[in-house]
Write a structure and sequence with these properties.
mainly alpha, 6 helices, 61% helix, 0% strand, disordered C terminus
Length: 151
Amino acid sequence: MLNQQPVITDLVREFPQLASSGAWKNSADQDGQWYGFAHLVRDLYEQRNYARVQAAFDCLEEFLDDGNPELRAWVAGFLQALQEVSSWGSENSEAFSDFLGASARRVSETLQTIRFDLADCSILEAEVLMWRVVHHPPYVSSRPSDTRPLS
């Protein structure tokens, strides 16, 4: 099972543009990490650097499939930040859909559901639902070698 801190270090190595931000040196600044990575992915997309966008989503898929609960929560936070910086839910709603793996697609669709269905609920209720989605994933990994049941 992948742990958050070593994986985040590897992510910065894979995307050296992130290293200039202090958020990546301070593991407690997850908001800064999420939004920094979200801005980078959006910028790569706008530059039509689709290979690097796919590389980013491939990393996220691995984090979701093999990561511990904290790492899966980190990915969920990133996907939410990406939705916010790229205006998902409007005319750009399909912008990143071709890059999502099965696990990331499930989390991003859940985030959209939370945004639309729980718009009138408290933040706490939405957070509890997202926690359940991230910590208890009822999916089979997109990886052929993984045999997790659908429980």
